[in-house]
Amino acid sequence: MLVEMRTYQIVPGKVAEFLTFYERNGLHIISLYARLQGCWTKESGTLNSVVFCWAYDSYAHRAEQRSKLACDPEWLAFTPRMLPYLVHQESVFLAPAPFSPAV
User: Has this prediction a pTM greater than 0.85?
Assistant: First the structure.
């Protein structure tokens, strides 16, 4: 399994609004292509940040699913509406250690 940790730094004061917007308008779309493992807001470190963890079977599976997502007309309409909330984005891939519990 591969987990992609995507961190979005949000315009200060807009985190709650972003979460509501994302849940109502984008979550159902991306959930067709990736398995949400969790979503958190950061209470330390870089503030005004939201962290999503998405699970894929492998790097190849992620590439395939992201390719499909990139062609989804609903996603293509959603992403420009999300951009005004974003200050910075980061994507990190996490591979489980052999003793890690299955997600």
Answer: yes
Pick the CATH number of 2-94 from 3.30.70.100, 2.70.98.10, 2.40.50.100, 3.40.50.1820: 3.30.70.100
Alpha carbons 18 and 95: distance in angstroms, whole number: 28
Confidence of residue 101 (pLDDT cuts 50, 70, 90): confident
Q: Is the pLDDT of residue 102 over 80?
A: no
Taking the CA atoms of residue 95, residue 96, residue 102 and residue 103 in that order, the dihedral angle to the nearest 10 degrees is: -40
Contact 93, 6 (CB under 8 A): no
